[in-house]
Structure formats: C-alpha cells, structure tokens
Amino acid sequence: MTQPKLDRLWRAYATQSRSITLIRWLGYGLLLLALLDLGAILIPINLMNPVWEFRSIGAIVERIPVPLIGFVMVFWGEQEYRRPGEKLILKALTWLTLALTLLLVAMIPLCFVNSMRIHNLKVEEINTFKVQRLALVQQLEKKLDQTNSVDEFQGLLSRALNNRPSVALNANQSLPDIKAQIPSLLSPRPCCH
C-alpha cells in the first residue's frame, strides 16, 4: 500500500472514531434527559391512585422512543473505540435495559387492573350524581305540589331551571293544567350548535 492510501485510511479511521464517540455522548445525554423526564412524571408519587398510575404509565410509554434511541447510540460500534471504564458502564446499561424491559412488561397487568378500578370509580360517581339529582327532583316535585298559585309555581320553576331560558306560564290556565306541563318543561332541550 502506498503512503497516500495509508494516510486516507488513517484519516477515515480517526474521523469514524470521533463520530462514534460523539454519537455515544449524545446517547448518554438522551438517557440522562429520559431519566429527568421520568422523575418529572413520577414525582410526586401517588401510588394506589388508579388514575395517577394509569396516566403515569401512559406518559412513560409515550416517552419510550427517547431512551431507546439513547441506548442504540450508546451501544453503537459495540466494543470499538471504548475506554476501559466505559465497558463497566456498558455492562450496567445492559442490565438496566433488561430490568426496564421486565418492568414495562409487568405494567401491562397493572394497566388492566387500573382500568377496571377507574371504571368502577366512574360508575360510582355517576350513581352518586344520579341519586343527588333524583333527590333534588323529588324535592322540587314536593314543593311544586304544595304551590297554591300560578305566580308561586312560576317562581319555583324559574329557580329550578336557572341555567335554562325562563319558562313563561299562562296565568289564565288553571294550576292543575300548569302542573300537568311539568314533564315537558323539565325535559332536556336540544342545544343549538
């Protein structure tokens, strides 16, 4: 081999060495950023709260690509161009990768359990809301049954339907006729879009 060819080969080797080293340092940086992001997701810890656990697992899964790219960059070039101390770090990162994989697989059943717990909590909230609303409707019915005048009836309806347009009642109608209109007055109205 001639000297110019050897010089070009040596320059290519040196350039590749610097490039691989730079790629590995970028990989370490991505792993550090992923670790900080994981800390931001998990702090403050609120274990046994199914909503927090479900959201945290979702946030972790969303951010999986960053550490994966970081691991690929760190492991790039296998054992070439490595310092002696870096081999120990590489071994620790290999075990860390295995541990994180097992942890992610273990989160799958936890997601199923948490989804069932969240479902049960929401059903409970809906039932509580339904019972409270039913009690309010029964109170309103009792008050409406006790009214003796159209004006009193109008006032009760206006207060009960505070988030709807006011209901105009015909004062010439009898109170039993007006009371018969209650279901149509209280039924949900379609919203304008």
The total of helices stands at 7
Beta fraction: under 5%
Distance between the termini: 81 Å
What is the alpha-carbon Rg in Å?
34 Å
The global form is rod-shaped
- Count of distinct strands: 0
Q: Give a short account of the largest sheet.
A: none
Portion of residues in helices?
Answer: over 70%
Unreliably modeled segments: none
Question: What keyword list fits this structure?
Answer:
0% strand; 193 residues; mainly alpha; 7 helices
What would you say this structure looks like, in words?
The chain has seven helices and no strands. With 193 residues, it is mainly α. The mean pLDDT is 83.
SSE arrangement:
Elements: H1 3-42, H2 50-62, H3 65-75, H4 84-146, H5 150-160, H6 175-180, H7 182-186
The gist of it:
This protein is an all-alpha fold. It has seven helices and no strands.
